[in-house]
Design brief:
The complex is a heterotrimer of chains A (111), B (86) and C (135). Chain A has one domain: Ferredoxin thioredoxin reductase catalytic beta subunit (Ferredoxin Thioredoxin Reductase), CATH 3.90.460. By secondary structure, chain A is mostly helical. A two-stranded antiparallel sheet of chain A has the order 1-2. The longest helix of chain A is centred in the middle third of the chain and has 18 residues. In chain A, helix 1 packs across helix 2. Chain B starts with a strand and ends in a 7-residue tail after the last helix. The longest helix of chain B is centred in the middle third of the chain and has 13 residues. Chain B has a 4-stranded mixed β-sheet, with helices on one face. With 135 residues, chain C is mainly beta. Helices cover 10% and strands 35% of the residues of chain C. A 4-stranded antiparallel β-sheet of chain C has the order 2-3-4-9, with no helix packed on it. The chains are: A mainly alpha (111), B alpha+beta (86), C mainly beta (135). Chains in contact: A-B, A-C. The interface between A and B is medium-sized, with 23 and 22 residues.
C-alpha cells in the first residue's frame, strides 16, 4: 500500500472532523508529514491509525481513545494547550505552533 | 550529575527531540521505547505512568522529578544547565 | 482488449455518495457517484470479497462494510486493510471461540489487494462502463 495515497486519504477524513471542533492541521508541514507517516505505519501494524505519541494499552476501550483524531476524548486538555498531544492539530487561530508547549493535563489545571 | 531516564515511543517526534536535547547537552540518559518493549515491560511502564498520573510520552525522570511532555526549559532547569530552549 | 461501453445504470439511479451493483458481461461491478463523477470498480472487496455496494462512499474513498478496508475508486488502490473486530470481554462457548481463533489466524495471513477499475462515461443520462477494459 502506498504511503502517500494513504496520507492523502487520512488528511481528507481528518480535516472534516477537526474543523467543527475548532482545530486545523498544524502549519508545521514537516511535523505534519512525519506524524501522518507514523500513523500510516501504525495503521499498517494495528489496523487503526493510533496517535504516534501516546501509549497503546492493549485494552480496546482505552485504545480507541487515542485513535486519530483523538481530540473529542481529550477536549478540555487540548483546548487548554491549543494543540493535540502529538501536535498534528492546533487551534484554528494558531500561526506559530512552535510556541505551544506540550503540557500534560496536570500542568494546565486539569485532572 | 542527576540520573536521567525516560520512557519514549519510537514513533514520536517529541521523544526524539527529548533524546536529542540530552545528547546535545552531553547528559547521559537511559531510555525505553515503550512500543518496542515486551508486554511485561509495557505493563510495568504503564503502572509507573498511572501512578504519576501521566498518560503521554515523553515521560522523563531527572533524579526524583518527573516531567511529562517535551519541556526543554524544565530539563535545563532540573539539571542546572544554561539555555534550555531549542 | 475490447473497450466496448455498455449501459450499466441510469445516472439518476445512483445518488451522489451512492454505490450500486450491476452485472455486465458476467462481471460484478459497482458504480459509484462521487459528487457527480461516476466511477466503476469490481464489486468484490480486495480483502475478503465482501460486496462493496454495501460499503460507504466519502469523496472517492469507499469503505467496505465487512472489515472496513478502504479503497480509492478513482484508482482502485487499496488504502488500508481490515480493522480488527472487537468481541467485547465475553468469553464465547469453546467451539465458537476456537472457530474465531482459527478464522483470525487465517485472516492474519491475507493481504488487501487493490481492486479493478473500469472506464466509465456518461451518455444521455446513462452511466456507460467498459467491462472488458478493467484494470
Amino acid at each position: 500500500m502506498n504511503t502517500e495515497s494513504r496520507k492523502k486519504a487520512l488528511h481528507y477524513f481528518y480535516e472534516k472532523v477537526v474543523g467543527p471542533l475548532g482545530f486545523k492541521f498544524t502549519p508545521d508541514a514537516e511535523l505534519r508529514e512525519f506524524l501522518l507517516e507514523q500513523e500510516v505505519i501504525l495503521e499498517g501494524k494495528h489496523g487503526v491509525p493510533f496517535c504516534p505519541c501516546q501509549p497503546l494499552r492493549h485494552d480496546r476501550a482505552r485504545d480507541m481513545q487515542i485513535v486519530c483524531p483523538c481530540i473529542p476524548f481529550h477536549r478540555k486538555h487540548f483546548d487548554a494547550i491549543q494543540r493535540c498531544w502529538c501536535g498534528l492539530f492546533v487551534h484554528q487561530d494558531v500561526t506559530d505552533p512552535d510556541k505551544l508547549p506540550q503540557l500534560p493535563p496536570k500542568e494546565v489545571g486539569l485532572e | 550529575m542527576k540520573k536521567v531516564s525516560m520512557y519514549t515511543l519510537s514513533t514520536c517526534p517529541w521523544c526524539r527531540k527529548t533524546k536529542k536535547f540530552f545528547a546535545d547537552h552531553k547528559v547521559p540518559f537511559d531510555y525505553i521505547d515503550y512500543d518496542l518493549a515486551d508486554e511485561a515491560t509495557q505493563r510495568r511502564i504503564m503502572q509507573e505512568l498511572d501512578a504519576a498520573g501521566a498518560s503521554g510520552f515523553p515521560f522523563v525522570k531527572i533524579a526524583d522529578e518527573v516531567i511529562v511532555g517535551y519541556q526543554p526549559e524544565r530539563y535545563a532547569s532540573a539539571l542546572g544547565l544554561q539555555g534550555g530552549a531549542e | 482488449m475490447s473497450d466496448k461501453y455498455i449501459r450499466a445504470i441510469s445516472a439518476d439511479a445512483v445518488a451522489p455518495g451512492g454505490v450500486k451493483a450491476v452485472e455486465l458481461d458476467g462481471k460484478e461491478i459497482v458504480v459509484c457517484n462521487c459528487g457527480g463523477k461516476y466511477y466503476a470498480v469490481q464489486r468484490r472487496c480486495g480483502h475478503m470479497n465482501a460486496p462493496l455496494d454495501m460499503g460507504t462512499l466519502d469523496g472517492t474513498y469507499l469503505t467496505c462494510a465487512m472489515h472496513c478496508a478502504q479503497f480509492d475508486v478513482a484508482t482502485g488502490e487499496a488504502l488500508s486493510g481490515p480493522v480488527p473486530p472487537d468481541f467485547g470481554g465475553e468469553i464465547p462457548p469453546r467451539l465458537l471461540g476456537e472457530y474465531f481463533q482459527n478464522v483470525g489466524m487465517l485472516m492474519g495471513r491475507i493481504r488487501t489487494e487493490s481492486i479493478r477499475t473500469y472506464p466509465t462515461k456518461l451518455e444521455a443520462g446513462w452511466v456507460l462502463v467498459a467491462p472488458q477494459a478493467g484494470d
